[in-house]
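Before the break, one more example. Copy the sequence into your notebook; we will annotate it together after we see the structure.
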Amino acid sequence: MKKHNKTSPWGLILILFCAGILSAFQVGKMPPVLQDIRLDLGISLLSAGWLLSIFNFTGLLMGTFTGAIADTIGHRRLMIIGLCLQITGCLAGSFTLSFQGLLFTRFIEGSGFLAVVISTPTLIFQVARSKDMKIALSVWSCYFPVGGALMMVFVPLILTGTDWRGLWQINAALLITVTLLIANRTSHIPFKNPSPEGVHFKKIIKNILRTATRPGPLLLSLSFIAYAMQWLAVIGFLPTLMMEQHGFSKALASILTALMVFVNIFGNLAGGWLLEKGIHRWKLMATASTIMGASAFMIYGSELHFSVSYTGCLIFSISGGLIPASVLSGVPLYAPSKHLIATTNGLVVQGGQSGQFLGPPIMALIVSQTGSWSHGAWFLSSIALFGIIVSLLLSKVPPADPF
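Here is what the structure looks like once it is written out:
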């Protein structure tokens, strides 16, 4: 379709980017109000953990399948469905009176989040000019750190005028606005890929197998697993590390963590710029993994001053941003066909969700068993080494459809 215009529709791409940011809000809104929810609903810390992890479970179980659904029924259609699911989850969740009810609504939100983040890159691929593709997709790869950082800043301000239920309703209102805007601005994009076969379960499974058995998509997914394991293991426990090891207050630890999340954006944008300049993506991925592995020893060096440790956090975050920019922009290149881009993206997202699910508990187990945060650096560096190996293997795989 299209791509006859001289310039890419950056206004539309920005709106699609906003949909990703608002979807990331639904992930980031939970941690700051988790204690409030525990007191309101009378739930245990374990139950609270389930409220946090349900998003990861959703992607872990259904990532590739959701991508295959998008490639079958249409990416615009699935994106709008995903936004509507998040609206439903937010509104229903704001009125729930039980843990089970809130958990179910979080599952609905998570399903909607998954549909949006898997289908949106393909929509960007459809509307952006080929010459702008790397930049457009690197901008898209910033949606999560932008959404996470903004939510960490906004939540304390919002809670001065309402409670967590009001926060859920404000998010629903924002989602309704962007859904109506996207429905209007994307009306020219076909709902379906032209296919005489229609929608069949066997076809969906065939597309999943075709994608998951190709080396390119598989290596991109493995790279995202390694990145996500390191990223969430560090970011998830950073406030705890600051309070335990450096004696910081909860508020200051949260602000510094938000800053670390924010600087990841610069790595994402730098990745897109470097790819545009002709740097091979596997080199960016290998370089990022190397720096992340080395900076882990700065972050968790028990004898190091806080300024050194936090500098390591910033280096870790900025360099790490090269990986999602490289991986997500590589999805259209390594997809088995143009009709399987969302399926490939689903496999990558599933890898990321798996890494987020595995990283924090393994990190927690190592630290609790050894009694020292410094041992976490060895865990992170070993995962970084795995990431380097994956990037080297990717260098041997030619793109299926370079743009």
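The first helix runs from residue 10 to 28. The CA atoms of residues 125 and 173 lie 28 Å apart. Try to locate both features in your own notes.
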